[in-house]
C-alpha cells in the first residue's frame, strides 16, 4: 500500500519458493516448452486473485521477430511508466537477479535469455513496492489485453508489444509452463513479472505473482 511501512525487506520481488518456480519456468522456457491456452486470467489489483477473462476484443496479428538488441527502456503508456532497464544474471542462490532494491523505478531483464523483440520469450521483472511507497510495477495487474508495451532497444528503435493475457497466480499449485512457456511457438513474446496477492509479514513475502504476457505486434521510434 502507498506510504505504508513494510517489515525489513518487505516488497522484495520474490522469495523462497517463488524463486524456485521461476527457475523451473526458465528451464521449461529455454527448451521451448508450450503452455497451451493461458488459462483463466483477467485484470485485478495486486491484492486480488484473477477475476476471470475480460470481454473478448480483437488483437492485432503478430509481427515477425526482430534481430537481437539490448533493451534500454520499458514504456507502458497506459500506466505512465518509462523505466530504465538493467541486465541481470543469477544471484548466489541461483535465481535471476531483480533490480537493486534501492532502485524501485528500474526494471530488470534476464540477460541470459531472449532479448525483447527477438524470437522466444523475453523475461522482465520489477518490484511492486518498497517499504514505504509503490514501485515501478505497482499497477501492473491493472493492464488489459489490447494495451501496448514498448521496449526501446539499443540503436534500433522500439519493439511494440500487445498485451494478450494478465494473470495473478498463487504460489500454491503454481504452473510454470502456463506462466513462462511460449503461448505460440515462433513469436516474439514478453513476460512482465512482479509480486501480487497479499503481503505476509511473518514470511516477508507475497502470496502470488502477477504475470503479464504480451507479443510483438510492431516497431516504432
TrEMBL record:
Identification of the protein by name: Class F sortase
Ranges of Low complexity composition bias in the record: 40-52
Pfam family name, one: Sortase
Gene3D superfamilies: Sortase
Regions crossing the membrane: 12-30
Region of interest (Disordered), residue spans: 37-63
UniProt source species: Streptomyces ziwulingensis
NCBIfam families noted in UniProt: class_F_sortase
Keywords: Hydrolase, Membrane, Transmembrane, Transmembrane helix
Record-linked InterPro entries: Sortase (IPR005754), Sortase_dom-sf (IPR023365), Sortase_F (IPR042001)
